[in-house]
Write a structure and sequence with these properties.
The structure holds two protein chains of two kinds.
Chain A (H helix, E strand, L loop, with lengths): L2 H11 L3 E7 L2 E6 L4 H10 L7 E9 L10 E8 L6 E8 L4 E3 L8 H12 L2 E3 L59 H5 L8 H6 L25
Parallel strand pairs in A: 2-5, 6-7
Antiparallel strand pairs in A: 1-2, 3-4, 4-5
Chain B lengths: L3 E6 L2 E6 L1 H10 L4 E5 L3 H9 L22 E5 L7 H10 L5 E5 H6 L20 E3 L6 H16 L6 E2 L6 H10 L3
Helix pairs in contact in B: 1-5
Classes of the chains: A alpha/beta, B alpha/beta.
Chain lengths: 228, 181
């Protein structure tokens, strides 16, 4: 339905639209970071696109894409209330690069961009108030980056040393579905530990690699790339 | 109550006991509670507190929304790292004697959350008297916890305890019928 939007974008920007895909009505346009603000403003104001409702801004981390390609995808979802169509805009930014804030286009993305900053550490130029939104100021690093160690916690107040502590209560024990959260990304990026989840492994006839995906057994799982 | 001696002198009489026992007996039936509800378990807590299950039957009917007036802290739901200082502060404001119930698996041990944001059990922050398993627990399990706590108050036991699982009587009857004699 929103193919018209993609056509309009291609007609307007030509080569600057790097890639477009259309999968079952999900239309995506990938643009360069330099064109990010301009394309967003165009689809917001252009009479044929008129994407006046901002839905969400988020990011995806693909550490295996480095160094050939930038590491993060920043994704914006927008919708037109008048025309009824939707589009997904994507751009690719590397670690440490900043991106233009879309705050002046859709005011609603202010908190979304704060969340992306909070979780991935992508900075947005021109954002009025770029602070952490869900986590606390004392938090070091960005937890949704795939190289953030899965078992690293940063307590605001120190844990008690004395006393008895409860371990996992049923049905949340280590062999009751808990280990699926424990993906050893360091090993996976080196080509080891391709395990997705115990259930999928079972389907594929693999042995459950619980020991290989338990972070505690792997000293190298701590990549040590936490930034200030 | 602990040790009670009844002295009958003619038509009237009197009973004696130890002061601590009398105090514990009074405390266990007048628990003023502070509900610290943060997540979905809060719904079960409302259910326990409202008329259908009615926790008032067990002498724990008065919620107090100032920790200074409360002596039983219900930690109902997931506690995230950002909320930990608030919970600790509330616990510190309560006056002695005070008790803590971890309501549900998240409050007890972090539940299925095992990540950067969740406290793996409130016992890492404050001492807990009773753990209620369940995601969320049934109201019956909550009553079991309260009765267990009252027992512990009356005999002065501060050992952390997990509420044992309870089976419906109907279910156990069915099971015993299935098994060949």
């Amino acid at each position: 339905m929103s193919k018209r939007v993609l056509e309009r974008l291609r007609a307007q920007f030509g080569e600057r639209i790097l890639e477009t895909t259309d999968f079952r009505g999900d239309d995506t346009a990938i643009v360069a970071p330099a064109d990010w603000l301009e394309v967003a403003r165009f689809v917001r104001t252009d009479g044929e696109c008129l994407l006046n409702q901002f839905t969400d801004v988020t990011a995806v981390d693909y550490p295996e894409r480095e160094p050939e390609q930038p590491r993060f995808d920043v994704v914006v979802l927008a919708r037109s209330l008048e025309k009824g169509h939707r589009i997904r805009l994507k751009t690719r930014v590397a670690d440490g690069e900043s991106l233009a804030s879309l705050f002046t286009v859709w005011a609603g993305c202010a908190w979304g961009e704060r969340e992306v900053y909070d979780m991935f550490g992508i900075k947005f130029d021109g954002h009025p108030d770029l602070r952490r939104v869900l986590l606390y100021e004392e938090f070091v690093g960005y937890p949704l980056r795939k190289d953030y160690p899965i078992d690293r916690t940063q307590p605001l107040i120190p844990y008690r040393e004395d006393g008895q502590f409860m371990s996992k209560l049923p049905p949340f024990g280590q062999d009751e579905g808990q280990p699926w959260t424990r993906i050893n990304w360091a090993a996976r990026l080196q080509g080891r530990d391709q395990q997705v989840s115990p259930a999928i492994a079972l389907q594929q006839g693999q042995r459950r690699a619980l020991s290989d995906s338990t972070a505690g057994d792997h000293p190298e799982s701590d990549l040590g790339t936490v930034e200030e | 109550m602990g040790e009670v001696k009844v002295l009958q002198t003619g038509e009237s009489g009197f009973a004696t006991t130890r002061f601590e026992d009398l105090l514990a007996w009074a405390r266990k039936y007048s628990l003023f509670q502070y509900p610290f509800a943060t997540a979905c378990c809060g719904m079960e807590f409302f259910s326990v507190a409202s008329s259908r299950y009615d926790i008032a039957r067990f002498g724990a009917e008065a919620p107090r929304f100032s920790p200074r007036q409360a002596d039983l802290l219900w930690v109902v739901g997931t506690i995230v790292q950002r909320q930990a200082p608030i919970l600790k502060r509330i616990y510190d404001q309560m006056t002695d004697p005070k008790w803590v119930i971890a309501f549900g698996t998240c409050a007890s041990c972090g539940g299925f959350y095992d990540n950067y944001t969740t406290v793996p059990g409130v016992d890492r922050l404050i001492p807990v008297d009773i753990y209620i398993p369940g995601c969320p627990p049934r109201p019956e399990a909550v009553f079991d916890a309260l009765i267990l706590l009252q027992e512990k108050i009356s005999n002065g036991n501060r050992e952390p305890t997990v509420v044992p699982p309870r089976e419906l009587p109907k279910l156990s009857q069915l099971r015993s019928k299935k098994e060949p004699a």
